[in-house]
Design brief:
CATH architecture of the largest domain: 3-Layer(aba) Sandwich
Order of helices and strands: HEHHEHEHEHEHEEEHHHEEEHEEEH
Number of strands: 14
Helix content: 25-40%
CATH topology of the largest domain: Aspartate Aminotransferase, domain 2
Shape: globular
Strand order of the largest sheet: 2-8-7-6-5-3-4
CATH superfamily of the largest domain: Type I PLP-dependent aspartate aminotransferase-like (Major domain)
Number of domains: 2
CATH class of the largest domain: Alpha Beta
Length: about 425
């Protein structure tokens, strides 16, 4: 008789709140409950579309391939990606992000930025090593680091300063087994756009402790109020930085899975590490081939689609900020980039933000993500909202949140201060 197959223990630590909570929502939906999805940063799910010119490029390449043209995009390509795409990313990094001495040889193309991040983690950590991750921060890092036997080392962002980075907090967290520090800018889930001072602190800190900087800049063109994005690699003359980017958010095409990583290594301390990543790239063969032909046209287009995209998102950001802050017991730092808000909610002792969010879902159908899934300061409670839905949906959702929160407090005889 066959015995039960036991999964690897390391998978027990893999949690991804953004998707995990959808399981509950789908069950309610199957029972006839109307769900208002404010949980996932997927623009095409809402009223945003991939630029038609970029979609057409892939269709044309596939049709040419099937018609017998010399270029066959149905084949495997170079494990680092096609040269046309890598060179375009490098040119863009120099011209628009301010990086120095970057060429196509310093770029690899990946199956979304997520794969690039995962490969960078896999090639770096040994059992017992740790990577510093922002808290709050995108849960991909906290889910993947343990898979490769690394330890989580979260550093708290400062809500009092608009979720900026606190140097004293970094010094408190670092230890002799720290290998890298993650900087998500603009930040998911808070929407913070990091200041020059915050980024310089990171560079100096990484230099002092001999760390690699993982710079997640997937939202670098989605900024509000005429703010500017500063790429942390542009501030470094020596500290090694791997910058992750892609087409998913800036170009409204997450499902196409087009991402990349850029090595910035002025003093050549990542030579062996880069080769380790290259070995992993070769082992997985290549990123999807046809989509890579969209990279150069996208980065060289001048981004005309962003004018209307950002006008819509900024208006929805404003609605989100104003309506959430009008709810007793809830406060929200104004997001500066991306399309997320991370409001704080006061809760009675013994009640978690996960419990609050699940009850909100069951009663109202409003689906947000509990803050503990992203990390947060002890004894605080938050939830993440995606403000991509249309204005009518957002207004309806925030009214439901307000009404539910009032009932919730009454039920628990709790007076928010």
């Amino acid at each position: 008789m066959l015995s039960k197959i036991i999964p690897a223990e390391r998978t027990e630590k893999v949690k991804y709140a953004i998707r995990d909570i959808v399981v509950k929502a789908k069950k309610l939906e199957a029972q006839g409950k109307k769900i208002l999805y404010l949980n996932i940063g997927d623009p095409p799910v809402y009223d945003f579309e991939t630029p038609e010119a970029l979609r057409k490029i892939v269709v044309d390449k596939i049709l040419q391939s099937n018609a017998g043209f010399r270029l066959n995009v149905s084949t495997y390509c170079d494990s680092m990606g096609i040269s046309e795409a890598r060179e375009a990313v490098a040119r863009h990094a120099v011209a628009k992000k301010g990086l120095k001495n970057v060429t196509g040889n310093d770029v690899f193309i990946s199956n979304g930025a997520s794969e690039a991040i995962t490969l960078a983690i896999a090639a770096l950590v040994n059992p017992g090593d740790n990577i510093m991750t922002p808290s709050p921060g995108y849960p991909l890092y906290s889910s993947q680091i343990p898979v490769y036997h690394g330890e989580l080392n979260p550093y708290l962002l400062n809500e009092e300063t608009g979720w900026q980075i606190d140097l004293d907090e970094l010094e408190r967290c670092v230890d002799s087994r720290t290998k890298a520090i993650v900087v998500i800018n603009p930040n998911n889930p808070t929407g913070a756009n990091y200041s020059l001072d915050s980024l310089l602190n990171i560079v100096n800190f990484a230099r002092e402790h001999n760390l690699v900087v993982f710079a997640d800049e997937i939202y670098d063109k989605l900024l509000f109020d005429n703010q500017k994005h500063i790429s942390i690699a542009s501030l470094s003359d020596d500290v090694p930085v791997i910058t992750f980017g892609g087409l998913s958010k800036n170009y409204i095409m997450p499902g196409w899975r087009v991402g990349w990583a850029i090595f910035h290594d002025p003093v050549k301390v990542m030579v062996d590490y880069r080769e380790a990543i290259n070995r992993l790239l070769r082992a997985r063969l290549c990123a999807p081939h046809p989509q890579q032909y969209m990279i150069a046209p996208a980065l060289e287009s001048g981004d005309p689609h962003l004018v209307s995209v950002m006008a819509k998102i900024q208006k929805r950001r404003d609605i989100t900020y104003e309506m959430l802050n009008a709810i007793p017991g809830i406060s929200c730092v104004k997001p500066e980039g991306a399309f997320y808000a991370f409001p704080k909610v006061q809760l009675p002792d013994g009640i978690s933000d996960e419990a609050y969010v699940l009850e909100l879902l069951e009663e109202t159908g409003v689906l947000v993500v509990y803050g503990s899934g992203f990390g947060q300061k002890p004894n605080t409670h938050h939830f993440r909202i995606v403000f991509l839905p249309d204005e009518e949906t957002l207004v309806k959702s925030y009214k439901l949140i307000a009404e539910f929160t009032s009932r919730f407090y009454q039920k628990h005889n709790f007076d928010p201060k």
